[in-house]
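Support reply, case 0932

Customer input (verbatim):
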Amino acid sequence: MRDSQSIFIQIAESLKDKILSAEYNVDERIPSVRDIAMDVEVNPNTVMRAFEQLQRDELIYNKRGMGYFVAPGAPEKIIEERKERLKKSLLPALFKEMALLKISIDEIVDAYKNYPKEAQ
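Our regenerated output:
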C-alpha cells in the first residue's frame, strides 16, 4: 500500500483495483468490513471509512443484511477517474522529466511496446 495516503484511501484504491481487474464484478458481493479489516490488519472503522467513500462515489451499494455490492457502472467510473488523475498529475511530471532528460516520445512508445504484458 502507498505510505503517503491515508489507510482508508489505500483500502478504497485496493478495492477499486479489484473491481477493475474483475475480481469483484458488478452486482457481486464484496468481502465484509470485518473480513477486509482482518486481511489488512486494521480497525474495522478504518475499512468502514473506505466503504463510505466508495458508496459516496457510487462505486458500491449496501443491501441491508446482505452486505456491500459493486454498483453498476463502477468500472467505467473508476477508469474515468483514474484517466483524469493521470492527465492532471502524472503526465505533467512525466513530460517535465522527459524534457529535462531529452527523452523523445518515440523512446516512450518503444518502452511501452516492450513493457512486459504480465506487468500490465
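We compared this against your earlier run and they match. Two observations from our side: DSSP finds five helices and two strands in the chain. The mean pLDDT is 93. Please reopen the case if you see a mismatch on your end.
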